[in-house]
Amino acid sequence: MEAYAISALVTIFSSLFTFWLAYNVGMTRMKHKEPPYEALKNKEVMIANRAHMNCIEASVVYLPLLWIATIFGPTTIASYVGVVWFISRVWYALGYLKDPKNRQTPFMVGLACIAVTTILGLYGIVM
After folding, report:
1. pTM of model > 0.90
2. Reported confidence tier of residue 38, pLDDT bands at 50, 70, 90
3. Half-sphere exposure in the Cβ direction for 9 (13 Å, CA)
């Protein structure tokens, strides 16, 4: 598969996973009868909401870096680091939903992917 296609798939799957997390927040709110216009009171709703928000926050940082590294840097390496990043985000969110204490290791993997992708992009632009 072409490296651009891999980065495109990472982008698509990240968007779909973020949408699923948003859906999960809605379903969790309904389960606990907590309307969206009220402050979060239920711990399970709060955790679902934070898992979703953290995914959005990470995507806003990572996806532009992925495309810069894919276009300007070593395309194949950048795209496979993107796959690892996406896996780390799924691992992070699903671990967070089970127990917020489960998020440290996947967070560090995702952070490493951000660092590597940034370096790849900068290298490609400068060189």
Report:
1. no
2. confident
3. 13
